[in-house]
């Protein structure tokens, strides 16, 4: 079977698909990575202690349970993560049965963007509103990405998916980095603009929601509706009841695709390592290496923009050597990075920035190719269903690495040993990928094997 020619209409639809990466990455970067943690913590501390300055030793009371204000945001994100792991498989089952995936994706995106805009109204001591909106925004983000990832199969043929996925990730990093520069300018330059720091943060939170919702319109209008592959009806039940039933059917049927399951397990390990490095890098830089906040901000921007080149270069490498081999090289790169991080001298900014550039290079490439590689190994017409498992694996188990990081630090009192312990996650992922028979996995799913896998 030959690939469908890359027509002007197909190129235009792929460009529209990229725009949703551009749209949602601004929320992930500005809100999720940089702003919401410190801001929501300060609001909670103001409620608990009457001030957001200094160390707060008074706990919040949540349903009768005492919670430290400094831990609130981590509990909220953990709750949203676990909730999404339960909800996403149902979202995927629904998405495979609707006539318009783009509409479903956009509705989740606009609901999440509205919640993100609502964060502007979180002020004073109203941390409860912030916690609720953060859960809604993160849950809607995960649901929209489940549908968005499934649309990749509609807009790109098997031999073209590595390129398209890589360009989408690169465009997303560019969008997220662009708004982050603007927002950091507002926050850091607020006094010169006559804006208090708190108001500057609230404006930045609002801008991320408007960016997410606004650019989703561009993606929605450019994508086309692709009719779902006909699936067997189940006793004439409603769409929702059939979707819940299909969740359990998918989990059972996954055993028929052992190679696809093997990849999901490999992805569970190495993605957990990636996410833990991302979450812990600022703490490592500040607490272990002694860098000021300004250095960490520059480092975040460096990682964001280097990841653009990483995604594109890994996409080109996959076209020549195959996605599986390229991902494996990326995992070797991650192992080198955490080893170098272990011996990195404190207070030396140039080696730290070089390490950050290395993180950006392999982060962009491994994440982009994992998405496109997985898309080859799932049954046609069930893409959203199986991508919901992909998202659930990513989100529902992403606390393993942070748990190991925290435990190693607790027992050794050293962030260096904690960071090097993450080699285990990359090594396990790499070992499992060496045992993966990608052509077999693709054929078992009933798909055409690309020229390079």
Automatic annotation (TrEMBL):
Q: Which UniProt keywords apply?
A: Membrane, Transmembrane, Transmembrane helix, Transport
List the Gene Ontology MF annotations in alphabetical order: transmembrane transporter activity
Q: Does the keyword Membrane apply?
A: yes
Show the GO cellular component annotation of the record. Answer: plasma membrane
Q: Which InterPro entries match?
A: Atg22-like, ATG22/LtaA_families, MFS_dom, MFS_trans_sf
Q: Where in the cell is it found?
A: Cell membrane
**Gene3D superfamilies linked to this entry:** MFS general substrate transporter like domains (1.20.1250.20)
Membrane association type: Multi-pass membrane protein
Q: Where is the Major facilitator superfamily (MFS) profile domain?
A: 259-453
SUPFAM superfamilies per record: MFS general substrate transporter
Q: Where are the transmembrane segments?
A: 72-92, 104-123, 129-148, 169-193, 199-217, 261-283, 295-315, 327-346, 352-374, 386-408, 414-433
- Pfam families, per database record: ATG22
Name of the protein described by the UniProt record: UMF1 family MFS transporter
Q: Which organism is it from?
A: Mumia flava
């Amino acid at each position: 079977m030959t690939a469908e020619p890359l027509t002007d209409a197909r190129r235009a639809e792929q460009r529209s698909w990229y725009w949703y990466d551009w749209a949602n990455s601004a929320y992930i970067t500005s809100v999720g990575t940089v702003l919401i943690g410190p801001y929501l913590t300060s609001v909670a501390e103001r409620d608990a202690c009457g001030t957001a300055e200094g160390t707060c030793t008074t706990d919040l009371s949540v349903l009768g349970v005492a919670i430290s204000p400094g831990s609130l945001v981590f509990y909220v994100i953990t709750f949203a993560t676990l909730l999404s792991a339960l909800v996403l498989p149902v979202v995927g089952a629904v998405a495979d049965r609707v006539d318009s995936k783009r509409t479903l994706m956009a509705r989740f995106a606009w609901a999440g963007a509205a919640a993100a805009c609502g964060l502007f109204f979180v002020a004073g001591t109203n941390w409860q509103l912030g916690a609720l909106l953060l859960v809604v925004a993160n849950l809607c983000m995960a649901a929209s990405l489940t549908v968005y990832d499934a649309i990749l199969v509609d807009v790109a043929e098997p031999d073209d998916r590595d390129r398209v996925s890589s360009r989408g990730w690169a465009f997303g990093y560019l969008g997220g980095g662009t708004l982050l520069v603007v927002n950091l300018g507002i926050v850091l330059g607020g006094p010169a603009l006559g804006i208090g720091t708190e108001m500057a943060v609230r404006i930045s939170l609002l801008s991320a929601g408007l960016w997410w919702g606004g650019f989703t319109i561009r993606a929605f209008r450019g994508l086309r509706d692709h009719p779902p592959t006909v699936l067997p009806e189940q006793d004439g039940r409603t769409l929702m009841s059939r979707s819940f039933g299909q969740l359990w059917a998918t989990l059972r049927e996954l055993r028929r695709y052992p190679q696809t399951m093997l990849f999901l397990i490999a992805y569970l390990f190495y993605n957990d390592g990636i996410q833990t490095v991302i979450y812990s890098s600022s703490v490592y830089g500040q607490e272990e290496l002694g860098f000021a906040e300004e250095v960490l901000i520059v480092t975040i921007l460096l990682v964001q923009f280097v990841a653009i080149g990483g995604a594109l270069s890994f996409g080109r490498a996959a076209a020549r050597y195959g996605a599986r081999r390229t991902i494996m090289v990326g995992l070797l790169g991650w192992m080198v990075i955490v080893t170098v991080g272990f011996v990195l001298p404190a207070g030396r900014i140039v080696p730290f920035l070089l390490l950050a550039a290395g993180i950006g290079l392999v982060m962009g490439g491994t994440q982009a190719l994992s998405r496109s590689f997985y898309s080859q190994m799932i049954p046609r017409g069930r893409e959203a269903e199986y991508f919901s498992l992909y998202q659930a694996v990513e989100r529902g188990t992403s606390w393993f690495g942070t748990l190991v990081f925290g435990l190693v630090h607790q027992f050794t009192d050293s962030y260096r040993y904690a960071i090097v312990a993450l080699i285990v996650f990359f090594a396990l992922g790499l070992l499992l990928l060496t045992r993966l028979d990608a052509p077999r996995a693709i054929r078992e799913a009933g798909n055409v094997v690309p020229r390079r896998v």
